[in-house]
Amino acid sequence: MGEIDAFITSPWMIWAVLVVAAAGWIHGVMGMGFPLITIALIALVTELKTAVILTVLPNIAVNLYLIAQGGRWRESLGRHWRVALYMPIGAVLGTKVLLAVPAEPLKLLLAFMILVYLNMARLRKLSWDWLKRAPRTAEAGVGLFAGFLSGTVSVSIPPLVIYFMALGLAPTAMVQIMNLCFVFGKATQAATLAAAGEITRLVVFTTVPLTLLGLLFLAWGARVRSRAHTATYYGWLNKTLFVMALILIFQVAYAWWP
Known about the structure:
82% helix
């Protein structure tokens, strides 16, 4: 039995179910957080590869749901579709690294990307004008790097946010193009994992109801968004993510301790 099958049949699967439900609700309320929360929290109790395989279908479904909400299609997809096309190339490379590299370096990369995400406000204040000087090169670089992150740790939002913020893209348009990028990256990751024999029948039978659960709580969170104190939730989420990053770093340090 593989690692993912062993995890699914263990008591820890209850933790994964609770995480997906909570992440779906939080994403519905705040409009973000599902990939980061699911990967980070599940990776605390198992290998990163297992967390990625278990959440690949729910993540694709969430992104498709958000794309279906519509809005600013011409401004987002019509102008920046090339970035999304570079995502699969990086995602293939990243997924192969996920399958070949030991768990500890990847957990360290995940912790680093969480810390980068938590410092996005500071990073936005830096000068990113150089991205506008060579738009085609920037599109390729951002798409490939974000795809690589999507394939390895399933957290590709930091480079995409920095890039589209530097271009002055409106929030709605930015959400649309980023969700398309996420779908391209995760779909490629899923296909690469399937080709490698990592997505078993048990994984499919487990992740389909897990996906439906995530969508159900996402819709519930979206309904209560107008009544929720989002500023408070952001504060809680950021503190939780910071603690998760520290735990991941501690796990790696403990594993590497002689």
